Amino acid sequence: MQRCFVLRLSKELAPGNVSFPQFFLLAALDLKEVLTMSAIAQKMGHTTAAASGLVDRLENLGYVVRSSAREDRRKVMVCITEKGSALVRRIREEMVGNLLKVMTHLTPAEQKAWLQIYTKIYNYCQAKEEPEAPAVRRKSSKVLLTSRRFENGTR
Question: Under 8 Å CB-to-CB from 64, ≥6 apart: which residues?
């Protein structure tokens, strides 16, 4: 559902010009301006090699540039270009415009509820520390086996 929603919100992402991970990385760089490859890997939840491939594609498109840190030439720094910042601005503006169109289909009460829910989700995602997950009771091996059989259609 989220993927469909975001694809509809941004035509720039829909035809495959920029992938979701590429856009999210560009948006992060647009806020921070410069990130190390290891910081990018950590932020994206990728290995450094996978993050390097992501940056390669963005660099080939002219959205980012790489350079070595002055204090340690082994440290690779990634910086967004003006072209990359312009793309982020354009996609954000398009998403906001499309979101406003979606909101016209909601009643004022639904709009208020949506905003409250979105604010909670945003605050959760921005939190430095994630709250502890509630304790989950472990299923017995018989229940797990039955669950797996049901999922596989073998009951």
Answer: 26, 29, 55, 58, 78, 79, 80, 81, 84
Between CA 26 and CA 90 the distance in angstroms is: 12
Tell me the CATH number at 90. 1.10.10.10
| Residue 141, in any domain of the structure | no
Taking the whole predicted model, whether its pTM rises above 0.70 is answered as no
The number of distinct structural domains making up the chain is: 1
pLDDT in tens, 73-82: 888 899 999 9
Task: Domain of residue 21: give its range.
Answer: 2-109
End-to-end CA distance of the chain: 29
- Quick: pLDDT tens for 95-129: 888 888 888 999 999 999 999 998 998 888 877 54
The answer to the question of residue 49 being in a domain is: yes
Neighbouring residues of 54: CB distance < 8 A, sequence distance ≥ 6: 21, 22, 25, 40, 44, 46
